[in-house]
Structures are given as C-alpha cells and as structure tokens.
Write a structure and sequence with these properties.
Blueprint (H helix, E strand, L loop, with lengths): L4 H14 L8 H8 L3 H13 L3 E4 L5 E4 L1 H5 L2 H9 L20 H17 L4 H4 L4 H10 L2
Antiparallel strand pairs: 1-2
Length: 144
C-alpha cells in the first residue's frame, strides 16, 4: 500500500510540530523545510486544523502549533482521515471488474488494509517523535 502525498505530508507536519522548539513555524516555513509546494502544505494544514490537531495563527507572531489532541491522536486515525475508507483497488470503477461478484482477492485486500490501519492505531504522534526521531526533526528544521 502506498500513502497519498497529502497523508505523508500530514504525518510529517504533525511530527515536526510535536517536537519542542522555541521557533513557531509558519505554513510557508514548513513547506520550504519539507520541500513541498506551499499550496499543497496549506491544504494539508487546513485539514489538520479542521480536525482539531493543530492551530494556526496569522500575522506577526503567528504560526502553527500542535494541539493536545494532535499530540495524542492515533497515527492510524490520521492516515484513515487522509486516505479515506475506499478499497485498495477500485473494483466498481468506470469499467467494473467482471470478477466483482465472486472475487476473493477484494476481501483479502480489505483485510490487509484493515491490518495496516490496526498496526498504526496504537501509535500516537508523540510516540513517533520519541528519540531519536524528535532530535533529528529539530536538526533538519534548523538547516537553512
């Protein structure tokens, strides 16, 4: 299974904000630090804010801050929110699969997908930034 770019970015934004630092980054700084387009980062930040996982303040002294809910949220929940609950393969798309009515592969792929999410459910954002990841994230974010 391959994650969408927005899912990957959402997890990296949460991880970056979870490490303590006196610098409060803006969306633009996060985008530049992660080498992604600002518009893409802004959409992801807006969704994370809508989910209550971070707060964003505009203007002088503004920036992004992780909420307590963001720190304790399940990585699996974040991945589900960004990936959606669709099947790994689209059996009913524009050209439906002729095996759709009796396919055992679809059921197996659904089970595998749920096992993937279940393995991420016990992990929180705080868990995934524990050493050595947190200090590494801070080091990366300080490089010009």
């Amino acid at each position: 299974m391959r994650l969408l770019r927005s899912t990957d970015l959402a997890l990296r934004v949460l991880m970056r904000l979870a490490v303590t630092d006196e610098h409060i980054p803006t969306t633009r700084q996060v985008a530049e630090g992660m080498d992604v387009p600002y518009t893409h980062a802004a959409k992801v930040v807006a969704e994370l804010q809508h989910m209550g996982l971070l707060s964003a303040r505009r203007g002088r002294g503004g920036g992004l801050a992780l909420s307590e809910k963001g720190r304790t949220t399940s990585v699996g929940a974040v991945v589900r929110a960004f990936e959606g609950d669709g099947d790994v393969v689209d059996c009913e798309g524009a050209t439906p699969c002729p095996l759709h009515s009796g396919c055992r592969l679809r059921v197996a792929l659904r089970r595998a997908q749920e096992a993937f999410y279940a393995s991420l459910d016990p992990l929180t954002v705080a868990d995934v930034v524990a050493a050595p990841t947190g200090p590494l994230l801070l080091g990366i974010s300080r490089t010009p």
